[in-house]
Amino acid sequence: MAIILTACSDRENKAVITISSDVDHPMAVIGLNERDFPEILQAYSKENLEVLDVESGELVLYQWLEDELLLAIELKGGKSRTLSITRSNTKPGNPEERTFARFVPERTDDFAWENDKVAFRTFGPDAKKRVIEGRSGGTLSSGIDVWHKKVKYPIIDKWYHKELQTKGTYHEDDGEGADYYHVGTSRGVGGTGFWDKDTLYASENFIRYEQIAEGPVRTVFKLYYEPYQVGDRLVSETKTISLDLGSHLSRYEVEAVCENTGTLPYLTAGITLHENKGTTIVNQSNGIYAVWEPMEGTHLGTAILTPQEVENYLKHISTHRDQSQLLANIKTEQNKVTFYAGFAWDQAGEITDIEMWETYLNDFAKRLRNQPKVTLTQKP
C-alpha cells in the first residue's frame, strides 16, 4: 500500500507503458531505447527508478544498459501488463537471482558468465600459453564450456574459490551442481569456426575481452580472437555475447570477415557430441540444432538456435576425441551471424527429459518471432 501511494503522489513525473504479447514469455526482457521512447529516456536517463506493475503493485526488475532501459517481466499470451515508471531516491539492491560475468585471472584467464539458470566459461591467452609451454592448468580452445548449476543464485565466485582456495573441487556436486562438462578442443556449446571441405577450422583462445554490462537483467561482453587460416582465407571473428535473466541460451552476435576478400559465405557454429551417446534434435524451420545426452549419471541438453538462414548442417562423427560435433553453417548477413546457444541440466529440475528440452527450444524460437509490443500511454 505504501509503495502504491508513493507512486500515485508523483503522478506528474510518471511514465506509464502497456506491454502485450501474443505468446507466453516466462521472462521477457523489454528494452526501451531513446529511438523508440525518447520521452522516457530523456526524462529518466541513468536515474534510480521505481518500476511498478500497476495492477499488483509489485516492483519490476530493471537495469540501465548504456542508452537503454531494460525491464524484466513475465508475460502471458493474449494479455497485457501496465507498468508505471518514476524516479526513486533509493538505489536498487542487488537481487539474489541475477546475471553475472567476470574475467577470472586467478585461474589462468577464464572469462565466465551466468544467470539464474546456466553458467558458461571460455579461455584466454594465458591458458593457451600454458599448453604451449607444457605447464599445468592450460586449455587450448575457443570452445564454450558449461557448468551444471542447479541453484538460482550466482555460483561462479564460489566455485572458483572452492577449486583454488580449499580442498574441495567444482568437479564434485556439493548441492549446487558441478563442472561435469568436457570441452577440450571441441566447439563445446556454441563455439564457432569455418567448415571447409571435410575439416573444421577454428580460432584459438580469445586474445582480449571487453566487459560492456553486468547486472540483474542482462550481461554483455565482447571477445576478440586472432585471425585463423582456412586455405587461402584469413578469417577474423569478434563475438558480442549476452545472457538475459531467465534464459537457458546465451546470445551470440559474431562479426566474421575474411581479411582477404572482406566477406564470408557462412560461419560454422557447433556443439560437441562427446562419445556419440546422445540423441540429436534438428528442426530446420525453427533453426534448432540440439542434443540430449547422458553425462555423469545425469542428462544434459545442449543446443544452437538461430533466426538466420542456415546453408546446411552436418553431424560429423570422428574417432578423434573432441571432433564429433553437430555443426550448422549459418549464412552471414552484412558480415555477421546471430545465434543462441546453451543448455539445460535435468538435475536442475526444470527441464528433465528430451521432450521438455525440445519443447523449450521450439517455444524459444516462437518467442523470437513474436516479440512483445510496448505502448507509451502516459508521458513523464
UniProtKB/TrEMBL annotation:
<dbReference type="Pfam" id="PF16153">
    <property type="entry name" value="DUF4861"/>
</dbReference>
<dbReference type="InterPro" id="IPR032342">
    <property type="entry name" value="DUF4861"/>
</dbReference>
<protein>
    <recommendedName>
        <fullName>DUF4861 domain-containing protein</fullName>
    </recommendedName>
</protein>
